[in-house]
Fold each of these.
Amino acid sequence: MYERRWPVISAVLVALVVAGALGWAVGRSAARDASADGQSRDANAAPVTFPNGVPVATERSRAGALAAADNYVTTATETAIQDPRRYERLVRAVYTSSYQPTALAEAEEVRNKAPELVQAYADGRKGVAVVAARRLDEYTDDKAQVTTWRAGVVWSGTDKPFSQWFLTETTLAWDGDRWRVAKIDDAQRAVPSPPVRFQDRAGLEPRVFERELRGMTAPVYGAAP
């Protein structure tokens, strides 16, 4: 999937397509909001829950909006190609009703145009989506805009491992009990892309990935700005 710079066609983030199909469990809870609105809720409440295996961000706060963008972006990128059923569950659960048809249609279009990628993941390609940093660009009680600096690492038994970096812009709308995706797209400008450096080239071998990452779980993202 990183053979070339996949544009995000509107709602479809297709650069990373792995964790859903791998069945990696979400491993840790998100950090809490220190603001007054964050403190007013139940101290045991989580900003993100996972009904039916997809994230639903239910905290109406700055931290909740960041958690929504983090988890929606990573889940979309990890499932749009490799796990279409989980991607559809995500779209149905947390995209606005007006945006859902576009998101589903464009994901299907991307899969149809890249059968070799679909087959590669069916044959065992794996990868990890990571939010390296993010910024809350705008926030009100009903709307939020977040820019995410995200990366992905991909490996398999036959292809050379590689990574790529993206800036993703997400517009969220509050819909009574959750944040929903109103728009999501990769920024069309230069992206910070650190060089990949290894002390030992053996670290690029797929067997190293398989051995060292076995049993690891994906985090739930989210923290106060």
Amino acid sequence: MLYIALLLTTLLAILHFLAHFFYFYWIYWWFDVCMHFLAGLAGGAAAYGVLSRLGRVSITRVLLSFVVIAGTWEIFEYVNGLTYSHEGYVLDTIFDLLLGSTGAVISAYIGIKREKRESI
């Protein structure tokens, strides 16, 4: 899963740089939605990979790990003025965290299913 996390993170970085260059975040409202979901998949895969190496993996732990990291990132963006202040900022942030959390849960689910299949 750590290799999958690396692959997804690389894809995320490439898409992010393209999005800034071609203004995708401003042209396509749904592009941000896709990016947050993809970040959740990558973060969930990374959390799963680390937790499985420690022998402490569960969907709840993966989700909690992701929420802590993503929440810290959202606070970092806000404190450092990296967000675009707009009317629905709090609701948008909650939606972003929910999208990412959904991706993280899906990664954990896939990882657990793969692990069970390999152990049979």
